[in-house]
Amino acid sequence: VLKLLALMYRGSGRLKYAHELLHLVHNLTHVWPKPLRDVMIKNWLVNPSGKPNSWVPVDLLQEHMNFWIKVIYKAQGGNASWEWLEMISPTISLLRKLALEVNSNLGTKLGTKHHTPGLERDYKILCDALREHNVLGFEGGRVIDKTNPNAGVVPNIATVGLNQLQAPLDEYNQAFRRLQRRRRMVPLT
User: Fold this and answer.
1) How far apart are CA 108 and CA 155, in angstroms?
2) Of the candidates 60, 62, 86, 59, which has an alpha carbon nearest to the alpha carbon of residue 75?
3) Pairing mode, if any, of strands 56-57 and 45-46?
4) Other C-beta atoms within 10 Å of 150: how many?
5) Cβ distance 40 to 32 under 8 Å?
């Protein structure tokens, strides 16, 4: 999946993502020993609530923690001292659970969270618009690129990425060989 995703990133113009993914695939398949590979693969997602199907990417969890630290627990402005951050950061999850428990026991939610709005009206508007503009139906003469009437085919971004891969692989291999040469150099000390 990662290799295909790297091709799709390249084919859709997301070159930095493609580059990082190629490095990751290389490390997973050729560099990291099995114990490290297992640690990396098994720690991309976390389940902070412990509820079924509540997994989130680690980087998203970190962004949420940053939000709670900065916005909710006011670790900004005058409160942004290292001492405050050192005290509050490890307790964020506990403080959140405590706040939810207190609100639950009091029988009220004190805060700005609203119930999930019904989607029936939005769904009807979307379906009406799709029908009105015949988006999902065949309509002769409809083309993707109006400047080129023969360009009515959506490109397969994995194939496009594969066709564009040679130059980035050459660059990667050159950089890799350069690092290998550097590694073999004797230190000057």
Assistant:
1) 53
2) 86
3) antiparallel
4) 7
5) yes
Structure tokens at 116: 């999930």
For residue 171, which of 2, 10, 3, 8 has the smallest C-alpha distance? 10
Per-residue pLDDT 10s for the chain (189 aa) are 899 999 999 999 999 998 899 889 989 999 999 999 999 988 889 898 888 988 999 989 889 888 888 776 665 666 567 777 787 788 888 888 888 888 888 876 555 566 677 888 999 999 999 999 888 887 777 666 667 766 666 778 999 999 998 888 888 889 889 988 988 888 787
In the numeric block, the tokens 């951050």 are attached to 85
DSSP string, 127-146: HHHHHHTTTTS--TT--S-T
E strands of the chain, at which residues?
Answer: 45-46, 56-57
89: which DSSP letter? G
Neighbouring C-alpha atoms within 13 Å toward the C-beta of 180: 7
Q: Model-level pTM greater than 0.85?
A: no
Question: What is the C-alpha separation between 15 and 10, in angstroms, rounded?
Answer: 5
- Write out the two tokens for 6: 């790297």
